[in-house]
Amino acid sequence: KPLDMVRLAAHISQVIRTEHSEPGRVLIIEDDRELASHCQSILENAGMQVTILQQTYQLFETVSEFDPELVLMDLWLPHVTGAELAALLSQTDRWAHLPIIYLSAESNSELRNQALLRGGDAFLEKPVDRDLLVRLCAARIQRLRELERTRNRDGLTGLLKHASIKEALQMQWQLAQRRPQTFSVAMLDIDHFKAINDTYGHSVGDTVIAAVGTLLRQHFRITDKLGRYGGEEFTLVLPDCDADQARKLVNRLREDFADIKFTSDGAPFTCTLSAGVADNHQFPKDTAEALLEKADQALYRAKRNGRNRVVR
Ligand code: GH3
Ligand code: MG
Ligand code: MG
Ligand code: MG
Ligand code: MG
Can you give the residue ranges of the Response regulatory domain (predicted)? Predict the structure, then answer.
């Protein structure tokens, strides 16, 4: 079926939104247990996932495991202030952008200002207003997700950027070291793309690249990692999938891509792509980096053997 190019952008943003419809994760740091579980039940009723941090010395262990998208923090804790914890988090690369909301009955505006200056984004008065709590948390989590999307995703295709897809590959590799599982890597490259740019111009070329992004999302699972490696090259990391299955999946994508009728000033044209796949069982002693290289070598063979094909 031909792709409606006009709807491309709308489709991409819609996919990004559904990817993000998972529940928000909130970490509560509050020594008043009653208040902590009160907030927990309010947020859980609103569909969020909540963890309560009992011991502040376990802060980094807990944030690494739970991967929160927001911290709801008491300003006064035993041995430490909320502002001090906020300052600690804001000094790390990973957690510098984590939104922090202070819970406080603090009426001294000087102390409140100091707490905000050390990290943290907002104050919620005790007793906590149920509706305000839910809306504030939801809004801040939404903003964080948008920020991360623009940081990690390529603007043209909505796919993961170069650094992010390589990170995803690294994580998948480490996961497979701990718990044996098969996964595949695919490298895709549009055929004779220079000719498309030369014939129809770069903006038409961009449309073709964006179409690959849309097709990729239609063909692959939400747990698959889809990236734009650069230019008109794409990298896929496919968990629980061996090279044979990967070859079949990518081949179906290849067929659908070849069927798209593009137009430029009323002139129709089509376009093809080549791909190489490799899995971690073919090359058990390799590194993640070497596996990517194997997929790239397979891609090179696909090009040399006539293009418009998938090789393992
Ligand atoms: P092959 O079949 O061997 O892959 O031939 P090719 O012409 O596709 O060769 P190659 O992969 O080396 O060329 C990629 C071209 O893609 C070169 C560059 O001008 C173009 N390109 C890279 N990034 C972009 C982009 O973001 N938009 C557009 N329109 N073109 C791009
Ligand atoms: Mg307290
Ligand atoms: Mg290329
Ligand atoms: Mg090339
Ligand atoms: Mg190419």
Answer: 25-141
Handedness of CA 190, 192, 193, 199 (dihedral sign): negative
- What is the Cα–Cα distance from 294 to 287, expressed in whole angstroms? 11
Instruction: Please tell me whether residue 173 adopts helix, strand or coil conformation.
Output: helix
* 232 noted as active-site residue: yes
What digits encode the pLDDT tens for the residues 110-119? 888 888 888 8
C-alpha 104/C-alpha 28 separation (Å) is 13
Q: CA-CA distance, 152 to 165, in Å (whole number)?
A: 9
Ligand 5 centre distance from Cα of residue 297 (Å): 14
The Å distance, Cα 297 to ligand 4 centre, comes to 12
Of 30, 69, 232, 233, the catalytic one is: 232
Question: Which amino acid residue places its CA nearest to atom 17 of ligand 1?
Answer: 194
Q: Which pair of structure tokens corresponds to residue 266?
A: 């009323």
Residue nearest to atom 22 of ligand 1 (CA): 231
Residue 39 pLDDT grade (very low, low, confident, very high; cuts 50, 70, 90) = very high
Share of the chain above pLDDT 70, in %: 93
How many CA atoms within 13 Å lie on the side-chain side of 273? Answer: 28
Cα 146 to ligand 3 centroid, rounded to whole Å: 29
Q: DSSP characters for 222-267?
A: TTSEEEEEETTEEEEEEET--HHHHHHHHHHHHHHHHH--EEETTE
Closest by CA to 195, choosing from 264, 296, 266, is: 264
Are 185 and 168 a contacting pair, CB within 8 Å?
no
Enter the ipTM: 0.92
Pocket residues for ligand 1 (CB within 6 Å)?
Answer: 189-194, 197, 202, 205-206, 209, 231-232, 303, 307
Q: How many CB atoms lie within 10 A of CB 108?
A: 9
